Amino acid sequence: MFSKFFTLAPGDLLRDAVYRRLWSSILISSLGGQVTMLALPLTAAVLLNASPTQMGLLQAMEILPFVLFSLPSGVLLDRMRKLPVYVAGETLLAFAVATVPLAAWMGWLGMGWLYVVGFVLGTVHTTAGSAAQIVLTQVVPRERLVEAHAKNALAGSGAEVVGPGLAGVLIRLLGAPLALAVDAVALLASAVILRGIRVQEQLSATRGAFWPSLKEGLAFVRSHKLLISLATATGGWQLFHNAALVVQILFATRELQLAPQTVGLSYVALGAGTVLASIFGHRISRRIGPGPCLVLGYAACGVGWLQLALAPAGHLGVVSFGVMLVAFGFGAVLIFINFLSLRQAVTPAPMLGRMTSTMRWLILLPAGPGALIGGWLGEHMGLRSALAFSGVGACLLAALAWRHPVIRGVRELPKPVEVVTA
Fold first, then answer.
1. What is the rounded (10 degree) CA torsion for 247, 252, 253, 254?
2. I need a surface site. Which of 32, 294, 324, 350 has the fewest CB within 10 A?
3. How far is CA 294 from CA 88, 302, 359, 373, in A?
4. What is the CB neighbour count within 10 angstroms for residue 6?
5. Quick check: helix, strand or coil at residue 60?
6. What is the reported pLDDT for 207?
């Protein structure tokens, strides 16, 4: 009975050995990442008693490298093999995360240390994160990118179901800083798995000067209405997402009076939302189209934040916190699988590195200000005001995106456009 349940369909992507190895790495890395997602801000909020403004600065430090390094890293990625960059990034992440429990043990840990760690994490995600997205296009045919991103999201969703509970147990037994050592081990395991992957790297035939190559990537994105529309809408979502993100842990521990291990357990609701979207997201996208599905993701996140801002304290507030996590998990996956698939589908292979870095740069430019706005609102006007700002903003964004014909009109993945170079 169980073997029948777990039997893969004949054409399932997981039957491909290379993709299956990549997927396994994502699963293990995501599982460890759930520990860091909770343990790092809990270390700041509970152990170091960080203010909302300091939490905003911590989030901004993770975003700053995207602003500084995204564009040049895209040019370099188009000139080198992506898989080694991905492997090196997982390894460096492991060492950066491991410094937090080491600093706590040595008595050196403070917000300054966490700011540095956050900056290193952001730097790795800027370079290796872009490389990882391109590696997927070398493993999976373009017409199956939505399916692949949905399966990758399912790996992350499985980690989000198990990971928060595991994080809660580890935080209770070891404390938040020492729990980060588990993520370091998971990241090293992910790097080992990735080293066994063999892909056909497609390097750009153009080896021109650095700055003209960078400008060519910017010009490609600027000339494509769909890419500009996607960057504008998802950049707005990043602003509201980061404004809410910096106050979520503070809201749970201070407004709802949840213990750190209980916060970890409550984040299982986030996993439930991402599992739902990972299972049904591909079907929803096929039925209504990638563009409308993207808009649905913006709206789901906005409703989740808004209802939490209006929720009373006490048991109903705890339930509302769980509802917010489910809504965010569901909405974020819908955004993720469609946004990435659309931008990759429309881009020719020699331009993927520069397009990826340019798009990540554009959508994360508003993320830093969003984190600072959320921190300022949380400290000066209350934590609920930051959540209300995010909720109302994301709902308005969804309404505007729905009225935008370029986004609403995308009912299937487009074909790559031709790139004419001088």
1. 70
2. 350
3. 32, 13, 16, 25
4. 6
5. helix
6. 58
